[in-house]
């Protein structure tokens, strides 16, 4: 998948190099090479667009993606706060449990033998 995107820039560079070469001597071979390179680039670009549109969220605009990211960051922060609260509650419960064990032992009447 990423190879499609990675191949775009080298293909564009080929077109630019061929175009610069044709400025000096526009031969039929150079023109044909430009046409072939352009068609290859166009096809690769079509494939890249297709891949991008099939990605989850690929149909969203940049602004919509930013909104989703912001919403997910808020959700993450809210979950982090809930986890901190839960952790504090568990700690206070476990501390209270230890104190009850000590209290219940201390208040148990001694048995005489």
What does this structure look like?
This protein is mainly alpha-helical and 113 residues long. It is built from 4 helices and no strands. The mean pLDDT is 83.
Q: Which regions have little confidence, pLDDT < 50, spanning 5+ residues?
A: none
Q: Largest sheet, if any?
A: none
Strand content: under 5%
Principal-axes geometry comes out as: rod-shaped
The helix fraction, in percent, is: over 70%
Instruction: State the order of secondary-structure elements, H for helix, E for strand.
Output: HHHH
Given helix and strand content, the structural type is mainly alpha
Indicate the mean pLDDT: 83
Radius of gyration equals 34 Å
Counted up, domains total 2
Distance between the termini: 82 Å
Number of helices: 4
Annotation, overall tally of beta strands: 0
Coiled coil: 62-89
Main location: nucleus
Keywords: Activator, Coiled coil, Nucleus, Signal, Transcription, Transcription regulation
GO biological process, one term: regulation of transcription by RNA polymerase II
Q: What keyword list fits this structure?
A:
4 helices, rod-shaped, 113 residues, mainly alpha
């Amino acid at each position: 998948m990423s190879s499609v995107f990675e191949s775009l820039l080298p293909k564009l560079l080929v077109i630019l190099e061929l175009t610069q070469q044709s400025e000096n001597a526009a031969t039929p071979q150079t023109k044909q090479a430009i046409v072939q390179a352009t068609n290859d680039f166009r096809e690769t670009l079509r494939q890249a667009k297709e891949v991008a549109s099939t990605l989850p969220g690929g149909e969203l605009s940049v602004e919509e993606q930013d909104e989703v990211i912001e919403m997910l960051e808020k959700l993450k922060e809210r979950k982090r706060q809930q986890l901190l609260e839960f952790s504090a509650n568990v700690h206070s419960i476990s501390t209270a449990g230890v104190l009850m064990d000590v209290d219940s032992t201390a208040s148990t009447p001694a048995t005489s033998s």
